[in-house]
């Protein structure tokens, strides 16, 4: 379970959560890697922080570590 800063809750595997985020934020036509790369670029430009964009679990865990998400395991 992952909760975004604006309160949206996503439940599933790491890949399912990223896919659901992509569907809500970018649309289902985009592949997961492209979505994570674009999100990582946005985070870098807004915060100067780096998040991985090649693995859904690493992407979500680092996003949580820097305070963008909450993970409830």
Tell me the layout of helices and strands.
Blueprint: E1 2-4, E2 9-10, H1 14-25, H2 32-47, H3 56-65, E3 69-71
Antiparallel strand pairs: 1-2, 1-3
Fill in the keyword field for this structure.
globular; mainly alpha; three-stranded antiparallel β-sheet; 73 residues
What does this structure look like?
With 73 residues, this protein is mostly helical. Helices cover 52% and strands 11% of the residues. It has helices spanning 14-25, 32-47, 56-65; strands at residues 2-4, 9-10, 69-71. The mean pLDDT is 94.
Strand line-up in the sheet with most strands? 2-1-3
Classify the helix fraction into a percent range: 40-55%
Which range does the strand content fall in? 5-15%
The radius of gyration computed from the alpha-carbon positions, rounded to a whole number of angstroms, is 11 Å
Quote the distance from N terminus to C terminus: 6 Å
Contiguous runs where pLDDT drops below 50 for at least 5 residues: none
Task: Tell me briefly what this model is.
The protein is mainly alpha-helical and 73 residues long. It is 52% helix and 11% strand.
């Amino acid at each position: 379970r992952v909760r975004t800063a604006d309160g949206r809750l996503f439940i599933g595997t790491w890949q399912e959560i990223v896919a659901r985020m992509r569907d809500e934020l970018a649309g289902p036509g985009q592949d997961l890697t492209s979505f994570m790369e674009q999100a990582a670029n946005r985070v870098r430009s807004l915060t100067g922080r780096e998040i991985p964009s090649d693995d859904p679990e690493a992407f979500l865990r680092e996003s949580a570590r820097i305070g963008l998400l909450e993970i409830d395991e």
